[in-house]
Task: inverse folding
């Protein structure tokens, strides 16, 4: 698989380089200008630069998509080998119900410790709830993982956007700056601009940056695949060991202990005392209170998401407003520079007109003198030569006058465009300021609502803690629970609380609770025994406890963790 990864990585780079060289080419760019109808205007040059960059993004995305889809097929084949072994497995002479082993789930769970997935983001997004859970838990939404109709390439495309923005801006500014030069010439301006764009992309080492993106994408993919493959191999070995233990387990005492433990669990749930919300509380009232608590928690979480959403929008609006202000300053600077150029060019035009007028008077005078002179006169040839020189000067002045007039028109157009842009940017800044003020008010209102919900949650949790202490006192009379344990226990969901209570029953049923310890764990400067297990969703959990005199057991803390030792 690793060799295959290296192969498609090399293919991706070669395929994209070919696409890049076709897009960022003089003839292609000149053709795009003509086909799209771009003119020698500021807005069109910015649009042209953005258009080319979007073509590169599309080329990169298409390339990675094709290779990612090929890789996913290879991954399914790789996983299929394990699944085939399970389907064909049998234990001769022994009839037992073998514990299930989900190959795809084991492979996917290897991604849980990573922050980047590369091409495996697409594979994970297709793998049901666990894949979606892994992506969301790591801050990668399912939509982001899929990209724009493409699985797993969003990270690469977002990186392109990060480098593409400055490049588009740089190319557009370079073209706009050069427009004053292109404007003097009437033909072939498309090729001139195309050459300028190619030079700007080369100057920014764009191809190398795109190749780096492709390289990082497949490096992340290889890292993610290795992590998933290692997790699959580890779980597979544990599965085989568990099968062996089941087959070879003839320990009658252990079986009897498990039977006793199962009966204790059944007894706990059959005889568990109902929480005393009040002497006249019915089961329906208890259920209503629990539902109300869950609803309040959901409302608080919803408000928290809304506050985060408003904060994100506020930050984006502020950033956009700052950008508009920068553009506004730039437009004002351009307008001021153009006004200065207009003054200079107007003066130059005036001087040229005066000079042209003097030249025309000189030509008229020489024509008159030439008519009055005889062709045989020795001054005839001198006058004729001087007249030719005056005509040449007149034509030169006319050409210069046309250049100055064209440039003056360009500068005036630039002032007009900048003026419109300034008005538009001022409107945008004002609109964004209104939006910012509105978002700030919304954040303040939502924060106040969230505080109300927080107080409701505190009230519910206090009530639940009292009920929990009452219940545990009835069934675990020899246990002493720390206030932190009770406070944090009510925050677990129903399935998690059931898992915890099953382990507490196991501690209660053990003849020597110390034998269940998986080792000592340091907590607040002391060492405690711990019982380690996993919640139904796979999260690792610890119960820290201490065995005291007279078979008393102190429960110090119950918590999730992400440490690899002493699981």
Result:
């Amino acid at each position: 698989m690793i060799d295959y990864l290296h192969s498609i990585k090399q293919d991706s780079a070669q395929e994209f380089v070919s696409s890049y060289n076709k897009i960022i080419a003089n003839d292609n760019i000149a053709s795009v200008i003509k086909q799209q109808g771009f003119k020698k205007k500021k807005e069109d040059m910015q649009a042209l630069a953005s258009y080319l960059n979007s073509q590169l993004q599309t080329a990169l995305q298409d390339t990675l998509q094709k290779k990612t889809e090929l890789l996913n097929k290879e991954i399914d084949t790789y996983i299929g080998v394990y699944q085939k072994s399970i389907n064909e497995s049998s234990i001769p002479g022994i009839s037992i119900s073998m514990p299930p082993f989900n190959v795809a789930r084991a492979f996917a769970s290897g991604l849980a410790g990573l922050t980047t997935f590369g091409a495996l983001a697409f594979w994970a997004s297709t793998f049901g709830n666990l894949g979606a859970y892994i992506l969301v838990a790591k801050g990668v939404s399912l939509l982001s993982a899929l990209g724009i109709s493409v699985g797993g390439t969003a990270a690469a495309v977002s990186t392109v956007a990060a480098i593409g923005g400055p490049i588009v801006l740089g190319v557009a500014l370079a073209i706009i700056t050069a427009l004053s030069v292109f404007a003097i010439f009437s033909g072939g301006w498309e090729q001139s601009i195309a050459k300028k764009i190619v030079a700007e992309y080369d100057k920014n080492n764009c191809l190398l940056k795109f190749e780096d993106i492709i390289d990082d994408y497949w490096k992340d993919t290889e890292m993610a695949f290795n992590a998933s493959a290692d997790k699959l191999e580890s779980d597979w070995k544990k599965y085989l060991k568990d099968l062996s233990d089941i087959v070879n387990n003839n320990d009658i005492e252990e079986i009897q202990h498990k039977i006793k433990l199962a009966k204790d669990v059944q007894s706990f749930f059959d005889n568990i005392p109902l929480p005393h919300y009040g002497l006249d509380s019915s089961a329906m009232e208890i259920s209503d209170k629990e539902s109300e608590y869950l609803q309040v928690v959901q409302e608080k979480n919803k408000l928290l998401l809304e506050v985060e959403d408003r904060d994100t929008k506020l930050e984006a609006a502020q950033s956009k407003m700052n950008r508009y202000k920068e553009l506004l300053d730039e437009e004002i600077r351009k307008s001021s520079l153009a006004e200065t150029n207009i003054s200079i060019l107007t003066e130059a035009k005036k001087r040229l007109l005066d000079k042209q007028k003097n030249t025309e008077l000189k030509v008229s005078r020489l024509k008159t003198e030439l008519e009055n002179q005889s062709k045989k006169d020795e001054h005839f040839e001198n006058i004729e030569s001087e007249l030719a020189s005056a005509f040449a000067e007149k034509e030169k002045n006319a050409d210069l006058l046309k250049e100055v007039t064209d440039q003056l028109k360009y500068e005036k157009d630039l002032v007009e465009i900048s003026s419109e842009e300034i008005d538009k940017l001022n409107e945008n800044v004002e609109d964004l300021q209104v939006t910012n003020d509105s978002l700030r008010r919304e954040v303040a209102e939502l924060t106040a609502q969230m505080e109300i919900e927080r107080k409701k949650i505190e009230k519910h949790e206090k009530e639940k803690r009292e009920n929990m202490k009452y219940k545990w006192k009835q069934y675990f009379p020899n246990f002493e629970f720390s206030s932190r344990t009770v406070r944090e226990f009510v925050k677990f969901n129903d399935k998690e609380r059931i898992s915890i209570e099953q382990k507490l029953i196991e501690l209660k049923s053990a003849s020597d609770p110390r034998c269940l310890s998986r080792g000592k764990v340091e907590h607040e400067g002391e060492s405690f025994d711990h019982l380690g297990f996993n919640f139904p969703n796979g999260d690792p959990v610890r119960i820290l406890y201490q065995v005291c005199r007279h078979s008393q057991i102190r429960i110090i803390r119950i918590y999730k963790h992400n440490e690899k030792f002493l699981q």
Summary: DSSP finds 15 helices and five strands in the chain. The longest strand covers residues 526-534. Residues 380-475 form the longest helix (96 residues).
